[in-house]
Design a protein that fits this description.
Rossmann fold, Alpha-Beta Plaits, 214 residues, 11 strands, eleven-stranded mixed β-sheet, alpha/beta, elongated, 2 domains, single chain
Length: 214
């Protein structure tokens, strides 16, 4: 995949290294050229100095035909505009933005921007959303995450109690077709269900197998 990262701070640099290590074609943009020092010597992608919402810079980064864009600067407005440009002007199929101020959360949702919100940012989660298409959005409060994802074959015909992990992972709502309901312990899950759940962040890796890959 060709992936563009806007912002080379702690999250952007970690994400760039992770994606590059996995063999993806990565271009990372930052207005401060010194920020690229965070990438170390293992990063083998493209480094571009500029603004992530600038069309010329994005075209130079290869946004035309790009597979995914991550807007992870430390400014919500920049991330929002970058996400809008990437998704609506260049029609990038997967765009994820970092959100700092939860007050703007409703705006991001109204604009249809997929985002990650929280004071604790884990680059691996952003990678999952960009590469594997997990979830619509994710919020973090302390060590708890609220996630929304499409169930995959691993949960098909399983009871809720066989899937949930006590004190670590709980499914709160199921959306099946045009019906939404709160599940009970004997509820049977189906491949394709849209699930809303709470998970402890240290247990996130345990439930990835339940998610349908895009």
């Amino acid at each position: 995949m060709h992936i563009i990262i806007v912002g080379c701070g702690n999250v952007g640099s970690q994400l760039g290294i992770l994606l590059s290590t996995e063999g993806h074609d990565v271009a990372i943009i930052d207005k401060n050229p010194e920020a690229f020092n965070r990438l170390g010597g293992t990063f083998n992608g493209m480094k571009l100095t500029g603004h992530g919402f600038d069309r010329t810079t994005l075209v130079e980064a290869g946004i035309e035909g790009c597979d995914a864009v991550a807007a992870v600067t430390n400014e919500d407005n920049v991330n929002m505009v970058t996400a809008e440009v990437a998704s609506k002007i260049f029609a990038v199929p997967r765009v994820v933005a970092r959100l700092y101020d939860s007050v703007r959360e409703a705006t991001f949702q109204q604009l249809g921007i997929d985002y990650v919100c929280g004071t604790t940012m884990i680059a691996q989660m952003m990678l999952d959303k960009l590469v594997e298409g997990h979830g619509h959005y994710l919020k973090i409060r302390g060590d708890l995450e609220m996630i929304e994802f499409i169930a995959g074959p691993a949960v098909d015909q399983q009871k809720l109690t066989d899937v949930q992990i006590p004190n670590q992972f709980r499914i709160c709502m199921i959306i099946r077709g045009s019906t939404s309901f709160i599940p009970w312990r004997d509820t049977i899950l189906k491949d394709g269900d849209l699930l809303v759940a709470i998970v402890k962040n240290q247990s996130y890796s345990k439930i990835k197998k339940y998610m349908r890959k895009a």
